[in-house]
Amino acid sequence: MWKPKLKKLELTKLVCVGFVVISQSTFAKDLQCKKDYESIISKNIVAISTALNIGDLQYIESKTDSSLIDYVGGKEAYNDVLVLAANAFKKGNIVVSKVETQPPQNSYLVGNNEICFIPKQLTILINGKPQLGEKSFMLAVRPLASNEWKYLDGAGLKKNPDMLYTLFPDFSHDIKVPLMD
What we know:
48% of the residues lie in helices and 23% in strands. The protein is α+β, with helices and mostly antiparallel strands. Strands 1, 2, 3, 4, 5 and 6 form a six-stranded antiparallel sheet that branches. Helix 3 crosses helix 5 (75-91). It starts with a helix and ends in a 14-residue tail after the last helix. The relative contact order is 0.13.
């Protein structure tokens, strides 16, 4: 009599494991960061990183994740910040001459978003002299219901890691965030 119960328990465990495997592979199909890196994300990051060179603040704003825009007080306040940055670049004779990125290692499901960290390093010209910037990253963010990626520069997050949890309250504190050490 105990053998059927044991078999039933084993069958139940097997079915549960099967559901976990199926659900994880279903989520994996929804994650796009690694798939979109070469064709979309890396190109967007280069364009965003060099947009100040030509004063294209509207492009930067259009590709910035709304979490940051909301945090600074809306589009007008964010555009004021962009104008200050553009003026500092112009006054300092600073030009981004090269943008190097690397594919992400992982994607994270955070609330209704997919988030991934894209390693990045800039070479800038200051008064025509090249200077290699420190290694940093960009955060690529995509609502799961959309194919459109938005971005945040990770330099500010490296200096203030808690800001990640302010902008994305659902981001687990248990995840060791790459590139923020």
